[in-house]
Amino acid sequence: MKLTYALIVAMLFLTACQLITTDNSRGRQEYRGARARTKMQNYKIFKLTKRCDPPGAACSRTNNRCCHACSSPPPGQGKGKCTNA
C-alpha cells in the first residue's frame, strides 16, 4: 500500500515537472537550424585560432603548446623550450 502511494506521488511530481518545463520552452525551437549553423561557424573560427606559447616558454612531451617546435631538454632538466624552427 505504501509503495502504491509512493508511486502515485512520484508520477504526479514527474508530470508536474514536465508541465512546468514545457511552458518555459515554448517558442524556443523556431530557429534551431540557424542557431546550430551559427554555433558551427563559431566553432570553426575557434579551431582556426591556435593559441600557443611564445618562443622561450617551457614545454615538454606531454605539455607541448608551442607555436612551432619544442626543443629537447638539456640533460638533468625535465622541460625543454619553445623554438621558432
TrEMBL record:
Question: Do you know which InterPro entries this protein is assigned to?
Answer: Conotoxin
Indicate where this protein is primarily found. Answer: secreted
A GO cellular component annotated for this chain's UniProt record is: extracellular region
Extract the signal peptide range. Answer: 1-22
Task: Name the keywords, alphabetized.
Answer: Secreted, Signal
Where in the cell? Secreted
Question: What Gene Ontology molecular function terms does this protein carry?
Answer: ion channel inhibitor activity
**What name is this protein filed under?**
Conotoxin
Taxonomic source organism = Conus praecellens
